[in-house]
Every structure is written in structure tokens, then in C-alpha cells.
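In this supplementary section we document a worked example of the pipeline. Step one takes a protein sequence of length 90 as its only input; no multiple sequence alignment statistics are reported here. Step two produces a three-dimensional model, which step three serialises into C-alpha cells for compact storage. The input and output of this example are shown verbatim.
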Amino acid sequence: MDTASFGGFLRTLLIIVLCYYAFKFAMRYLFPLFIYKVAKKAEQNFQQKQQNYREQQNTAQETKSSNHFESGGMREKKKVGEYIEFEELD
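The serialised model returned by step three reads:
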């Protein structure tokens, strides 16, 4: 069985300390950049959806207004059913 040497212990301790500081550096400087990019992308998606919604609303209004002008400004009445006239019996 091998015994642990003092040099191996120092090397392991050094690796742990370097990993700790690398992680600390990443969290302090790189993580905020990552969050900034994610927020920017979410904002762009939101604006794109908002623009698509506005375009759909404009298209719907144009269609509605063009149908209004084509029909001469009058709406067609819906045919519900047959009209029956009743007489009152004495």
C-alpha cells in the first residue's frame, strides 16, 4: 500500500485552492455576463412577440374595415329561421 507523501498533499491542496479561485472568478465576472445575455435575448423575444401581435391586430382591423367598405357600410343580417305569424283566437 502506498503512503501519502507531503508533496502529493501540497499538490492536491493547491489544485483545490486554484479551483476555488477559478470558480469565484467565474461567478464574479462571467456569470453576470451570462445573465445579461439571457436577459437581452428574453427582451428581444418579448419585443418580437409584441410586434407580431401588433401586426396581427392591424391586419385584423384592415380586414374588418375592408369588409365594411365592400358591403356598402351595412352589415348583413343573419338568417335565424322562418318567421311565423300567429293569430289570436277568441
